[in-house]
């Protein structure tokens, strides 16, 4: 790093006791002399050969070697001699005499006299100078510089080849060289970092002092290295920037090609196997189980489509990101890919949704049809069971239940028609999708099935309605039959009550003729009511016979009710006749008695015949006797009118009147007895 007084560079060659290889020394000198610039070389070199630790023959060999290595650049050679000089050898060879032959001046000088030729500030401490120099530091920096120069130069060539190939090469050449061009031998970032660190170190040494604080000027080789490093860094940054752009473009192109490939995979599958799966699934099933099986198969198809739809979503996001980047050259192609992908996916998704809705509608249709079929089966089973109700109320309940079931069937059939029509409308719209094929034949099978189900349900419902009409008529007749039987039984009860009232309350015979006639008239009206009740019961029983014949069944109560009615009526008739006979006898008794009792005694001619008295007494006794006699029925049973006290009261009135008649008779007999005596 030092300079002589002519501003020439100082080259120091330290020799040691070990054997020095001249070849290695020659190579080293060639390398060192290649470092300075031509301008520095033109000022010449001052070479210091430190021979203090070496032998004379080695020194002489080194000096002579300088003649061959750097004769033109060397201006002065200072051989630093040891303290014990080689006196004899100097006499054999004198360098100053060989100046013309060597081409440079050679002087022998001790280390402390070296300052005569070179300034102390340009000499290192080894030669008594003050120049600060760290050979290892210089060597390390030089190695770094050499490495950086070599790597950067090689990297520049590689980057230039890549960049130029990318700019000038065809698309096919780029594709063929992609593996080589995009793999530089060294990492550009590492080389740039090394260069920046080296440049920073060189610039820092230029302005900072040494560790001791002494100002230090960089060597010419370092000053020369700085612009070289800066130039290499500038070139590297330029080529690396172009390289990054090439990588970005190639990465974008690769990404675009990958997107194109994935788009084509999605489109190819959806338009190929995906559409083929939908083409093979056209049926709607003929039952709930069949529709559910088709739905399960469709869910499997949807699951396969979902995987491709997920790829579509990812691709759509990638395309959107590239579109936002705003590269004009790719916008048209990206938009075309996006549109193609969206059209295919949306069309396929619409077909899947349409198929799912169709299968759901078919499932609902078959569910309604199955429910309606079960309702019809239940109604038919109810109609096929013979009606054997216990009474009219149970028949009414059964009839109400029948009407409710029929109404439920009507509602079910209406719901089936609505579901069927909705399903037919969807099937008719299926032709617009078509799945890329003619679905007329398949649709006709589906339409025929739906219409067949609805027609079958309509026929079954009509048959059930006809059977319901017949059953309704039969049940109404049964209600009427039960009503007639109940009313007939009621008529028997009424007639029994009339008989019971006749026996228990129709007891009095009247105190006179007028009252007895009134009682007789009331009794006839009472008999008319009983007659009407009996006739009403007979009519009801006749109606039950007619209804039983119509229903082809045997009435449970008509066979028992008619004998009961006749028996009660017979008893009532006998009792009524007895009552009439008693009242008529009482009228005759009261009439005769009242006539005799009301006649005047001045008319004895009216009592000429005493037979009238005897007749009245006979009628009275007959009446009294009849009051004590029970009413005897055909079955041998007997019934009395009223209680014994009631009969005794009625008999008392008859006896009193008989006493009056007897007294009247006695009064009439007394005059007859006095007349003969007188």
TrEMBL record:
<dbReference type="GO" id="GO:0043325">
    <property type="term" value="F:phosphatidylinositol-3,4-bisphosphate binding"/>
</dbReference>
<dbReference type="InterPro" id="IPR001251">
    <property type="entry name" value="CRAL-TRIO_dom"/>
</dbReference>
<dbReference type="Pfam" id="PF24915">
    <property type="entry name" value="Spectrin_SESTD1"/>
</dbReference>
<protein>
    <submittedName>
        <fullName>SEC14 domain and spectrin repeat-containing protein 1</fullName>
    </submittedName>
</protein>
<dbReference type="GO" id="GO:0005546">
    <property type="term" value="F:phosphatidylinositol-4,5-bisphosphate binding"/>
</dbReference>
<dbReference type="Pfam" id="PF13716">
    <property type="entry name" value="CRAL_TRIO_2"/>
</dbReference>
<feature type="domain" description="CRAL-TRIO">
    <location>
        <begin position="1"/>
        <end position="135"/>
    </location>
</feature>
<dbReference type="InterPro" id="IPR056804">
    <property type="entry name" value="Spectrin_SESTD1"/>
</dbReference>
<dbReference type="GO" id="GO:0032266">
    <property type="term" value="F:phosphatidylinositol-3-phosphate binding"/>
</dbReference>
<dbReference type="GO" id="GO:0070273">
    <property type="term" value="F:phosphatidylinositol-4-phosphate binding"/>
</dbReference>
<keyword id="KW-0677">Repeat</keyword>
<dbReference type="GO" id="GO:0080025">
    <property type="term" value="F:phosphatidylinositol-3,5-bisphosphate binding"/>
</dbReference>
<dbReference type="GO" id="GO:0010314">
    <property type="term" value="F:phosphatidylinositol-5-phosphate binding"/>
</dbReference>
<comment type="similarity">
    <text>Belongs to the SOLO family.</text>
</comment>
């Amino acid at each position: 790093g030092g300079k002589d007084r002519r501003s020439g560079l100082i080259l120091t060659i330290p020799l040691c006791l070990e054997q020095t290889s001249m070849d290695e020394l020659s190579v080293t000198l060639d390398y060192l002399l290649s470092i300075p610039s031509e301008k520095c070389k033109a000022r010449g070199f001052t070479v210091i050969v430190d021979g203090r630790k070496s032998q004379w023959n080695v020194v002489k060999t080194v000096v002579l070697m300088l003649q061959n290595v750097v004769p033109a650049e060397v201006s002065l050679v200072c051989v630093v001699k040891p303290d014990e000089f080689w006196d004899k050898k100097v006499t054999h060879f004198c360098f100053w005499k060989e100046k013309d032959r060597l081409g440079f001046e050679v002087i022998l000088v001790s280390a402390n006299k070296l300052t005569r030729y070179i300034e102390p500030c340009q000499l290192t401490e080894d030669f008594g100078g003050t120049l600060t120099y760290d050979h290892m530091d210089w060597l390390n920096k030089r190695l770094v510089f050499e490495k950086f120069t070599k790597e950067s130069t090689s990297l520049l060539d590689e980057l230039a080849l890549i960049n130029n190939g990318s700019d000038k090469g065809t698309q096919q050449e780029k594709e063929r060289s992609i593996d080589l061009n995009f793999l530089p031998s060294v990492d550009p970032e590492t080389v740039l970092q090394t260069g920046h660190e080296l440049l920073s170190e060189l610039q820092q040494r230029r302005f900072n002092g040494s560790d001791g604080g002494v100002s230090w000027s960089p060597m010419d080789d370092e000053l020369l290295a700085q612009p070289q490093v800066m130039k290499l860094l500038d070139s590297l940054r330029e080529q690396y920037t172009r390289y990054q752009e090439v990588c970005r473009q190639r990465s974008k192109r690769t990404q675009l090609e990958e997107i194109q490939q994935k788009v084509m995979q999605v489109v190819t599958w959806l338009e190929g196997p995906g559409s083929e799966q939908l083409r093979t699934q056209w049926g709607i099933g003929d039952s709930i189980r069949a529709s559910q099986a088709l739905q399960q198969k469709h869910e499997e198809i949807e699951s396969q489509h979902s995987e491709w739809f997920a790829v579509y979503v990812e691709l759509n996001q990638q395309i959107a990101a590239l579109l936002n980047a705003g590269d004009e050259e790719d916008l048209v192609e990206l938009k075309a890919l996006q549109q193609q992908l969206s059209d295919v996916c949306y069309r396929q998704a619409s077909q899947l949704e349409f198929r799912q809705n169709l299968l759901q509608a078919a499932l609902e249709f078959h569910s309604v049809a199955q429910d309606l079929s079960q309702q019809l089966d239940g109604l038919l089973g109810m109609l096929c069971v013979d009606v054997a109700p216990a009474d009219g109320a149970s028949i009414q309940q059964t009839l109400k239940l029948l009407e409710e079931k029929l109404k439920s069937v009507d509602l079910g059939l209406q719901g089936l028609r609505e579901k069927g029509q909705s399903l037919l409308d969807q099937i008719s719209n299926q032709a617009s999708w078509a799945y890329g094929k003619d679905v007329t034949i398949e649709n006709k099978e589906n339409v025929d099935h739906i219409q067949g189900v609805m027609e079958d349900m309509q026929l079954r419902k009509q048959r059930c309605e006809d059977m319901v009409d017949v059953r309704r008529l039969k049940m109404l007749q049964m209600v009427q039959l039960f009503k007639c039987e109940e009313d007939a039984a009621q008529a028997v009860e009424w007639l029994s009550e009339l008989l019971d009232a006749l026996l228990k309350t129709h007891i009095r015979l009247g105190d006179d003729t007028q009252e007895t006639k009134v009682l007789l008239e009331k009794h006839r009206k009472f008999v008319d009511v009983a007659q009407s009740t009996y006739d009403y019961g007979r009519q009801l029983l006749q109606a039950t016979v007619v209804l039983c014949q119509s229903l082809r069944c045997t009435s449970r109560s008509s066979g028992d009710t008619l004998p009961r009615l006749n028996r009660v009526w017979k008893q009532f008739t006998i009792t009524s006749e007895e009552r009439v006979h008693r009242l008529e006898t009482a009228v005759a008794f009261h009439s005769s008695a009242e006539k005799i009792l009301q006649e005047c005694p001045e008319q004895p001619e009216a009592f000429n015949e005493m037979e009238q008295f005897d007749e009245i007494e006979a009628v009275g006794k007959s009446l009294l006797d009849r009051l004590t006699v029970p009413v005897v029925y055909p079955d041998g049973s007997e019934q009395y009118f009223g209680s014994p006290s009631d009969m005794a009261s009625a008999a008392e009135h008859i006896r009193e009147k008989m006493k009056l008649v007897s007294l009247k008779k006695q009064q009439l007999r007394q005059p007859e007895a006095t007349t003969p005596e007188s």
